[in-house]
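Hey team,

Filing this mostly as a record. A colleague (T.K.) asked me to run one chain through the structure pipeline before their review meeting, and I want the input and output archived in the tracker in case anyone asks later how it was produced. No errors, nothing strange. Just documentation.

Input sequence:
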Amino acid sequence: MRLPIQPVGRRRPAIRSLPALVVLVSATAGLAPGQTALAAPPPGLIVVPRPASQPALSYFKLQARPGSIEQAGVIELRNPTSRRLRVVLSRVDGETLGTLGSGYAPPGSPAHRSTLWLQLGRRTIALSPGGSAAVPVSAVVPALAKPGDYLSGVSVEALNQRSRAVKRRGVSIASLSRYAIGVEVSIPGPRHPLIQFTGARIQRQPAGLTFLLLARNPGNVVLQGVRGYVRITRAGHPVVSRPIGSGTFVTHTSIAYPVHAFRQRGRTTA
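Output structure:
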């Protein structure tokens, strides 16, 4: 398997810094990385990250030392509408998507590790029609923080949104917009890239049988461009054999990578 989420293989995965990590999340899980400003379909909230360093980036990237307080920058909020908007900001964990790639936990979920370091100037803001505001973001790094790469994020959401109905194959899906701005904190010191496979499961999905390959990144490097190959056999006969696409595997996260075998039959586990 490839690991970005990449499970198999012993080749050392490629390692490089994270790309732009501004993500627009909707009910359909659409991702829009690499944009310096993301706006919901008008009328709607406009969110623009303003990094204190490396202003060309669309996310916050910090070099920090244990025991320091680092200014990440500000998040600019704009209300281009004719109505008042109430905006809520929250700290969220960085995650690895099941098929590899970086994502963010939903607002209101428990915060862990570097997410607890984040300090937001404000958590709720009321924007008048045509108004704007800037919310400072900083990181308070504990004195006992260990070397490595840490990913967390800031969720930004306008309350009382007017949901948009999207019809797909006869099903209507209500879609709301939420923004997640990445915060990558790098603490100097030795790097230890590592991926471990912890097991596998079989799951019966509506489309058919799916193997779930369990893996985790216990190292201290956010891995990118990880790739590999998966081969599943039964009594010496191949069941599934395919490459695992390139992806990202965030530190201290786990995944269940799906490998579909819809033509196969077998017992499932709970």
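Quick notes for T.K.: Residues 12 and 226 are 8 Å apart (CA to CA). The chain has a mean pLDDT of 80.
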